[in-house]
Write a structure and sequence with these properties.
Layout: H1 3-70, H2 73-100, H3 103-132, H4 136-143, H5 146-226, H6 240-273, H7 275-285, E1 296-302, E2 311-317, E3 323-330, H8 335-353, H9 358-367, E4 376-384, E5 389-395, E6 400-403, E7 409-412, E8 429-432, E9 438-442, H10 444-447, H11 458-467, H12 471-474, H13 477-491, E10 500-506
Antiparallel strand pairs: 1-10, 2-3, 3-4, 4-5, 5-8, 6-7, 6-9, 9-10
Helix pairs in contact: 1-2, 1-3, 1-5, 2-3, 3-4, 3-5, 5-6, 6-7, 7-8, 8-9
């Protein structure tokens, strides 16, 4: 199963589980909350009304007794107002309990209403009629009779039962909401545990299916890089995607080994059949190791045809402590171009080591080419870390690119003609060269490469690529030229059409 399929299945299962649990909680909450809120909204006024009903009935009984004892009309009025209030409360209870849809309460309300009517018929109404007829003794007998007391007790008991039931059911609803709250908390806790377990499973799966296989492939690649001849194989491991990556890396290793074998055979054949050419190439490739505090240099030279290149670069320490760097390109290829390159290189190296001015060094190299069919383009950079400058003499060469620490760029434009039998004169120019700055020089093989559309690279795009690198990369010349060369080669559709020499000089901070 592919890593993508595993991730999709695991994510799908997690999403389905969480969605189902979420829907259960939401639906349960909606049903419970809606019913609970509606019932509480109906029962809250019913509870108040039932409590007031018992009080109104008691007031009616007390006012009736006072009326019989003292014959005060005010007591009769209070009785009638209390009964009217009790009737009104029964109507309010009927409306409120009708919205609650609780049969038990409907039955108790009916019982309370009937018991009040029985008390009125057995006690209140006959007593009032007797009092209004002037029969006080009869009224006293009626209101104190066993039937009247029985009817009153039944009425108050029915009202009390109604109030207790309303309060009980309201408490039950509150308990139901509290129970649901606990259920909701438990559900959220379960979801949290599932999410935690899911994250743990995801991390375990990532380690097992991605990190561990990547470490394995990385270990094989490091082993292949360390072993002489790069013979250590890179084994495919992990899910299909990573197996494909490791398989591609193994194909790349095999191709690299094959190319190394071919190059080794070619060099061995060249060393056997043409030792002079090999010696000339070795001499051109010897740049020497120099060290100037505060300056770091790296460079490379790649030949387009065989092992004989017309490009070279060199570095020497001048008597004044400055560092001179030469990048040059001889027209044409092959042994004749290499002879010209060796002569010009030797003259420039010796004159620079002698401390002669840059103009005089180039002049002497030009005089040596008076009978040559080839010409040379060259750039001499003189870095002075103490004075914080870089001076240059450009003899018809591609401009070097200076990029400052804040990504401003300048060009070391030509300051005279190329080195040839035609001669000429040259000048020297300077830029500030501060910590964090870098100068990149190159031959035309770098910028004349074409992409799939046939467009050349040009110096402006090289400058853009350099400025696009992070500061730590720009201040590391070796990493800079590696990154720059990789990007240019990736763009080029005709890479090996000319020799390429690339040199970077930086002042790290």
């Amino acid at each position: 199963m592919t890593l993508r399929a595993r991730a999709i299945i695991a994510s799908g299962i997690a999403v389905v589980v969480l969605v189902v649990m979420g829907l259960i909680v939401v639906v349960q909450f909606a049903i419970t909350a809606a019913g609970s809120y509606a019932l509480q909204e109906a029962l809250s006024p019913a509870a108040d009304a039932s409590a007031s009903l018992s009080l109104a009935q008691a007031n009616a009984s007390g006012s009736l007794t006072d009326y019989v004892l003292f014959e005060r009309e005010r007591s009769l009025t209070d009785y009638r107002e209390s009964i009217a209030q009790a009737d009104l409360l029964l109507d309010q209870l009927s409306t409120a309990l009708g919205d609650s849809d609780v049969p038990e309460l409907d039955a108790l309300l009916g019982e309370a209403t009937a018991r009040q009517q029985e008390w009125l018929a057995a006690d209140a109404e006959p007593t009032v009629v007797a009092m209004q007829a002037g029969q006080r003794a009869k009224a006293a007998r009626v209101t104190n009779s066993k039937a009247a007391w029985t009817a009153y007790e039944a009425m108050t008991q029915a009202s009390s039962d109604l109030g207790k039931s309303v309060n009980r059911i309201r408490d039950d609803v509150a308990g139901l909401v509290e129970s649901f709250t606990r259920f909701l908390g438990l559900t959220l806790a379960v979801i949290g545990v599932l999410v935690f377990l899911g994250l743990g499973a995801l991390m375990l799966g990532m380690h097992r299916w991605v990190i561990a296989p990547l470490r394995h492939v990385r270990g094989d690649m490091q082993q292949a890089a360390r072993v002489a001849g790069h013979e250590a194989p890179i084994r495919p491991v992990g899910p299909p995607e990573l197996r494909d990556v490791s398989t591609d890396a193994e194909h790349l290793r095999r191709s690299l080994v094959a190319e190394i074998d071919e190059a080794r055979a070619a060099r061995e054949g060249l060393a056997q059949d043409a030792p002079l050419v090999t010696a000339m190439q070795a001499e051109l490739g010897a740049t020497g190791t120099v060290s100037v505090p505060g300056v770091v240099v790296a460079g490379l030279c790649q030949s387009a045809e065989g092992v004989m290149a017309g490009d070279w670069w060199d570095q020497v320490i001048r008597p004044d402590g400055t560092l001179a760097i030469v990048v040059a390109d001889v027209s044409g290829h092959g042994p004749e171009a290499s002879v010209t390159a060796l002569r010009v290189r030797s003259i420039l190296r010796s004159t620079l080591l002698a401390g002669l001015p840059l103009e005089q060094c180039v002049q002497m190299a030009t005089e040596s080419c008076v009978h040559d069919a080839h010409f040379v383009t060259g750039l001499i950079l003189q870095v002075d870390p103490v004075g914080g400058t870089v001076s240059w003499l450009n003899a018809g060469h591609h401009p070097a690119i200076l990029v400052t620490h804040d990504k401003e760029s300048s060009l070391c434009e030509p300051t005279g003609p190329l080195i040839s039998s035609l001669g000429g004169s040259w000048t020297v120019r300077s830029y500030y060269f501060r910590p964090g700055d870098v100068v990149v020089a190159f031959t035309d093989g770098l910028v004349e490469s074409r992409n799939a559309e046939g467009d050349e690279l040009e110096s402006s795009m090289v400058s853009q690529l350099i400025r696009g690198l992070d500061s730590p990369v720009r201040e590391n010349p070796e990493e800079l030229i590696t990154r720059l060369l990789a990007q240019v080669r990736h763009r080029a559709a005709d890479w090996r059409r000319d020799d390429v020499t690339l040199v970077a000089v930086s002042r790290p901070r």
